[in-house]
Design brief:
elongated, 5 helices, mainly alpha
């Protein structure tokens, strides 16, 4: 299975917590917070095989990272369980990483502008 373009470069989250199928699924659900997906779409969005998803699915359920949102026919849809204490902490981590990245990016831009002005 070819990895989606999104994973050509790892997210800040994956760089920090590690690039495993479990963390890829978690990262995908964090990036798409509020949306729900079937297992096949989660595997594709996370850039992992369906087999890898099924190996880590029990851990995601046990940790309270995912919850079922609805079911139609044999298809169930799942989303990030934002009420879970673990997910709340993961979202805080994600926000801290974004703030740190934005701060560094702003510093780089200011430094470039100062360098141009000094020329």
């Amino acid at each position: 299975m070819e990895k989606p373009e999104k994973f050509a470069e790892k997210s800040m989250f994956l760089k920090l917590v590690g690039d495993s199928p479990l963390m890829r699924v978690t990262d995908f659900l964090i990036e798409n917070k509020g949306a729900d997906f079937c297992k096949k779409a989660i595997a594709e969005g996370a850039g992992i095989s369906r087999t890898s998803l099924f190996y880590c699915w029990g851990e995601l359920e046990k940790a309270g990272v995912i919850k079922q949102t609805r079911k139609f026919g044999k298809t169930s849809l799942y989303t990030l369980d934002t009420k879970s204490p673990i997910v709340k902490r993961l979202l805080e981590l994600e926000m801290a990483l974004i703030e740190k990245f934005l701060g560094r990016e702003a510093e780089r831009r200011v430094a470039k502008q100062i360098a141009v002005i000094k020329r």
